[in-house]
Amino acid sequence: MTSYAAAGVDIEAGDRAVELMKSRVARSRRPEVVDDASGFAGLFDASAFLRYRRPLLATSTDGVGTKVMLAQRLGKHDTIGIDLVGMVVDDLVVCGAEPLFMTDYIACGKVVPERIADIVGGVAEGCRLAGCALVGGETAEHPGAMGPDEYDLAGAGTGVVEADELLGPDRVRPGDVVLALASSGVHSNGYSLVRHVIKTAGLDLERQLPELSRTLGEELLEPTRIYSLDCLALIREVEVHAFAHITGGGLEANLARSLPGTADAVLDRGSWTPPAIFEVLAGHGGVAQAEMDRTFNLGVGMCAVVPADQADRAVAVLTERGVPAWVLGEVVPGTGAARYR
Q: Which positions, given as ranges, span the membrane (predicted)?
């Protein structure tokens, strides 16, 4: 007699995964989270919004791309969830929104409870770092559609911002300064090119290259830096006009999204030295500078646009919080483009 288990779906393994992840998820809890006894939905107490004059809800959804393939190849699954949170909440905070809660979705070929618990544990840790709650999620077993060691994950987050405190292009003006907030590495964009370089150059993920202080695999799996609490702290301390999350498209394309049509951002390439991993990828892969520029963050994971007279204070605030920051460029009259001088 046939069964769901015979078709490749292990319900008991899924139940065990849930039990293993419970304590890790609890670490991301916020006071506004309300327990749903049925477990079908995540609940968040919206009465917290009563302190706002006109609260705007912000939402974002994302995944981590093909970086998951490196995590699978190296058998390290406890940090890829941090990447997921970073990709979602750092989009939310660009408009000034405080991330409140997230949900996640994992599809896999086979539920291995310990592996799923590691993945979700990473998501929960990312939520803790971002100050938001992981209020729910789903793990789906797709035998036949995915190999037993394959998985993918995605997530969605919700935040809130006061309507008259919304950040964005309309606040930016010539004379402002663009600040760079350092990335932790490659973050979660460009990994199809990363994997192509690894394959064509015959690079060993377990090897420590002369340019790096750890193995190539460890360098490439470094989790995405989560900036949300740092950006919110910066907003409290100085006048911030805009942020830009530097993801696919690189500095120029993403920063342009936060500029009005009457201004340009002129960036100084000499203001920083990209981390060594980018030199490794460009050198071993024969990747041109223009391709590096539009694919990777090159060491800048977030930008902040502030008035020139508050730039020093802004850098000091970020430095005190452990985020390396520097003046990257300036805003000048233009047509809404970001470019290098």
A: none
